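Sequence design from tokenized structure. All designs in this work follow the same two-part layout: the structure record, then the generated sequence. An example of the structure record is given first.
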């Protein structure tokens, strides 16, 4: 680790890294430098153990059996829900619905909240920097209802102008849906102010928290949003599990979006009645092991301390921004004053995909492409970017390794 890095890091990152078995492996004979945490983060042993222990000792279906295993599985599953409730500071576990991930959460809101309510001429407001998961479900809803999608612009730094956002909250706006942190640029949006402005006009809000929960403390009551969505796999938890928080009153008013077992109270051929919250939105056997793993991931993050994690990640972001900013021929895409934990960039004369391949040969894993945010790429007039995204287990020395690998790539393309 460089002297500069040591001076800025009181955090015991080596002790943390020892908890993540994958971080000690090699790739193409080189130590793995994992800088693709925005796509999916790695798992501490405690999360792997929690899932394995669940399958080894407690597995059965939940909410269905009187036998011991079913009750144990139910307790573990509902225990995980309570951990999520505390993590988000929701008022009640009735406000915590388990889904497959952020994508499914947003589709649930579009179809269950939006489809029965929206009329031709109604408006849905999103920002220019949204992930496709916070664009396409609304486009489908527009096709189904005749509503219109409105887009708040960004500036050349990748900042959403709050005044413009406020000005676009019109009499026909029914919902405003926006990310807390942009996955393509790293911009942090002023989501509490945005939610307050919408609420003052009676407009419902959804926050896409996929890139925020690993890096920022989230309190849904303080944010004042109606819906909040995130995925387990970016939070050191398993894939295939995520969370939709929704204000209880809104959830009560919404119809189920999928039908099947567990979401019903009674079924007859004359008609069916719905289960209480949150089960009304959880049709079929859920991802029990995923929920257990997510609960363990939250436990782990709370042990590290999200404030400590965020501080270390900020130090990595500042260090990477300075190093990459000095790198000849490299342009950082996304220069908002308030950013979280990732740097997107392009390098003169090297396509991002080639860059990704060369870096991989050096053991450095980054993401290249449009990051499921094609409108952002269009705005900056680039086909793709390279993106290094950091976690609290990354080190300043790994950023040095990234820069060294970029140097090799530049040499190859000279
Ligand atoms: N972004 C990335 O590399 P899912 O796939 O449902 O877990 O998450 C979708 C999603 C929604 N919103 C934001 C802001 C996101 O970043 C993502 C996932 C990954 O940036 C994969 S494309």
């Amino acid at each position: 680790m460089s002297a500069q890095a040591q001076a800025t890091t009181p955090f015991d990152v080596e002790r943390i890294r020892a908890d993540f078995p994958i971080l000690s492996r090699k790739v193409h004979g080189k130590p793995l430098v994992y800088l693709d945490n925005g796509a999916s983060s790695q798992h501490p042993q405690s999360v792997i153990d929690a899932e394995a222990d669940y399958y080894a000792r407690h597995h059965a279906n939940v909410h269905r059996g009187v036998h011991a295993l079913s009750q144990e599985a139910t307790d573990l599953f509902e225990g995980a829900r309570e951990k999520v409730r505390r993590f988000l500071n929701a008022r009640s576990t009735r406000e915590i619905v388990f889904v497959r991930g952020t994508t499914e959460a947003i589709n649930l809101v579009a179809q269950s909240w939006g489809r029965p309510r929206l009329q031709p001429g109604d408006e849905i407001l999103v920002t220019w920097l949204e992930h496709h998961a916070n664009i396409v479900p609304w486009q489908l809803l527009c096709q189904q209802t005749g509503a219109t999608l409105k887009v708040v612009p960004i500036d050349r730094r990748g900042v959403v102008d709050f005044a413009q956002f406020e000005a676009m909250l019109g009499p026909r706006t029914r919902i405003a849906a926006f990310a807390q942190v942009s996955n393509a640029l790293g911009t942090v949006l002023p989501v509490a102010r945005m939610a307050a402005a919408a609420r003052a006009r009676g407009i419902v809000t959804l926050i896409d928290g996929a890139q925020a929960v690993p890096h920022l403390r989230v309190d849904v009551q303080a944010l004042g949003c109606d819906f909040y969505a995130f995925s387990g796999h970016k939070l050191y938890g398993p894939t295939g599990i995520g969370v939709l928080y929704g204000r209880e009153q809104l959830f009560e008013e919404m119809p189920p979006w999928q039908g099947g077992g567990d979401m019903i109270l009674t079924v007859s051929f004359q008609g069916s009645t719905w289960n209480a919250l949150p089960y009304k939105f959880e049709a079929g056997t859920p991802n029990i092991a995923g929920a257990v793993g997510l609960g363990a991931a939250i436990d782990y993050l709370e042990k590290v301390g999200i404030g400590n994690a965020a501080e270390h990640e900020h130090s990595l972001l500042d260090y990477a921004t300075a190093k990459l900013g000095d790198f000849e021929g490299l342009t950082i895409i996304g220069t908002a004053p308030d950013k979280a934990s990732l740097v997107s960039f392009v390098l003169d004369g090297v396509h991002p995909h080639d860059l990704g391949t060369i870096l991989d040969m050096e053991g450095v894993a980054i993401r290249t492409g449009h990051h499921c945010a094609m409108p952002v790429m269009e705005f900056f007039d680039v086909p793709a970017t390279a993106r290094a995204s950091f976690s609290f287990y990354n080190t300043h020395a790994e950023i040095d390794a990234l820069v060294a690998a970029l140097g090799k790539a530049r040499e190859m393309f000279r």
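The mean pLDDT is 96. We note this feature because it recurs in several other targets discussed in the main text.
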